[in-house]
Design brief:
The chain is of the alpha+beta class. It has four helices and three strands. It starts with a helix and ends with a helix.
Length: about 80
């Protein structure tokens, strides 16, 4: 089930916006290779400490966009619906 270029770009933007709420930056592998090309391509880095918080299990950029989004949505800290 492939995604078109525009769908991927749209999902990247959505995940980036979601990450800003949690103080993390979505990082994308510039030149995917091997495992990264097959599965993954993304990591999350905490902006304040510059520590990788997700997507480096086994190898760097090991998370897919969907996995990153699920990880962020599972975090209770800054959900919009809880701020109101």
């Amino acid at each position: 089930m492939g995604q078109g270029k525009h769908e991927i770009t749209s999902l990247e933007r959505r995940v980036k916006r979601l990450g800003y709420r949690y103080g993390v930056l979505l990082m994308k592998c510039a030149k995917p290779f091997g495992k990264v090309k097959e599965h993954g391509g993304y990591m999350l880095r905490e902006e304040e400490t510059r520590k990788i918080v997700f997507g480096n299990k086994g190898y760097e950029f090991s998370a897919t966009l969907e996995e990153v989004e699920e990880f962020l949505l599972a975090q209770p800290k800054y959900r919009d619906d809880e701020e109101r």
